[in-house]
Amino acid sequence: MLFTSLKTEQMQPMTEASAIQQNHRGDARICRGCWDQMHMPIPIRGPLALPFRAFGITRSKMNPNICTICERSFRYVKKQSHVAASATILFADIRGFTHLSERIERMRLSEIVSLFQDRCAQAIWAHDGIVNKTMGDGLMAIFNFPIIRKDHADAAIRAALDIQKHCADALGRLDFAGLGDAPLGVGVGIHSGEVEIGEFSTFRSDFTAIGGTVNLASRLESQAEAGEILISAETASEAGDLVSNAATRLLSLKGIDLPVEARVLATH
Amino acid sequence: MLFTSLKTEQMQPMTEASAIQQNHRGDARICRGCWDQMHMPIPIRGPLALPFRAFGITRSKMNPNICTICERSFRYVKKQSHVAASATILFADIRGFTHLSERIERMRLSEIVSLFQDRCAQAIWAHDGIVNKTMGDGLMAIFNFPIIRKDHADAAIRAALDIQKHCADALGRLDFAGLGDAPLGVGVGIHSGEVEIGEFSTFRSDFTAIGGTVNLASRLESQAEAGEILISAETASEAGDLVSNAATRLLSLKGIDLPVEARVLATH
Question: Is there a contact between B6 and B48 (Cβ–Cβ < 8 Å)?
């Protein structure tokens, strides 16, 4: 009976329009990652989700439309296995935060970090990415795993544009009297390519992506000024219209021998 | 009855010698964080731990001698509250990893990251720190929260020395034929001061430390060469003998106006 009910549930979000609509409302009824990776319908909302919850299968903190199984969903689910995946990696952090953290009280810092993390998460989820790591005033997101999006380069850039817009709105409303003109904005770096996805320590179940793709995305982010999105040539070539008017910048990045050409979207 | 048994359990690890001994074996029977923060004996090993486990209270992935309550233990445990704490923050990452990640296959990268994460965690736990964040080829550890160590500066430096030793042993055994002389080693940065500890996003229960202290530790780490431990003046002044022979280096760090003087322990 459970299985029949699951099948019924499963049909609903699979029509494309409703899936997108549901996702944007942040309330898919079956786990979108388990469906995309394994074609397995795992209820994450509604009464059918209750028995699963009893076994610890709940909505993921990384994206509320996926579940805790598929947070670590590999094609063959087993401990210490890794899979190769084609993905787009996005890094974002608050520019000027180190400077700021020496000047204002810690409670205000907490407020800024909370605003930033929440605005970024909403933007990333709206485009089917997951917030894989948060690190104080920064974060790392993965697109195309476990929720599959063929247009993951495009999705990541749209998420970055939303991050810039929503963070500028939120941070702009804060009052930093006495701080002078220290700019407070967000820098974003995006790169697409092959990554290795898995759990890379035996002591914690904490899946992530590693590889040159991840490091390049991180390096790009470190070079982005407040309000900028730096996009690698690989991501740009898949993204089409979104970057057609973007400027080009040649960057010398730590640990990378040749200069890297990036496209620059300046949002304010 | 339960309470009486807890009292009995509680007595045992509280004699200092046995507490240290048990900790070094990684098998404290009550949560050391809950004890230090709230004087509450929470069983994490043995039959008394079973009923707690049924309610989701288990050993933490950040340190096996603390529990999932005190992973987020604040003096007043409540959602979205932050506490100020005096702590030592340690950052470590693999030097040359970006360079390496462009040259070797991803499966080998996974192996290196796993070795690094596991060796670091063992070293950090042995000195009562927690592995608060892992980020691919890097990590962040906190000392003096939730397990209280008055000598947290000292504990962090000793952990760093162990990290360098154990990683050098492990990474040295790997065979990177054809890679030339790209150095593979670990860089560590350590700084002590006030931090704000809490959960800074409404969407995930993911406690961490933020503030200028954290950012300076991270910046120090970014300047450490393979095999080096860079220690701030604040940490060094509390650590005594361990750094008495260390060299001094003046650093210009991103986001920090004045040059920063650091002590340098070179381990190989």
Answer: yes
Which CA distances in Å does A89 have to A17, A219, B91?
Answer: 26, 12, 22
A110, A194, A251: best to mutate for the B interface, most B CBs within 10 A:
A110
The pLDDT of A69-89, averaged and rounded, is: 70
Mean pLDDT of A17-26: 42
Banded pLDDT at B179 (limits 50, 70, 90):
low
Tokens 């940490």 locate to B235
Q: Which residues of chain B have a CB within 8 Å of the CB of A98?
A: 212, 215-216, 219, 253-256
SS3 percent helix, strand, coil of chain A, rounded to 5, is: 40, 25, 35
The answer, yes or no, to whether residue B37 has pLDDT greater than 50, is yes
CA angle A234/A137/A181 to nearest 5° reads 100
CA dihedral A59, A60, A63, A65 (to 10 degrees): -30
Numbered ranges of CATH 3.30.70.1230 in chain B: 82-266
A211:B133 CB<8 A:
no
Q: Which amino acid is at A268?
A: H
The residues near B153 (Cβ < 8 Å, ≥ 6 apart) are B88, B143, B190, B192, B234, B235, B236, B238, B239
pLDDT tens column, A101-120: 878 887 788 889 989 999 99
ipTM of the complex: 0.78
Q: How confident is the model at residue B180 (pLDDT cuts 50, 70, 90)?
A: low
Instruction: Mention the CATH class of domain B82-266.
Output: alpha beta
Please give, rounded to a whole number of angstroms, the shortest distance from the CA of B22 to a CA of chain A: 19
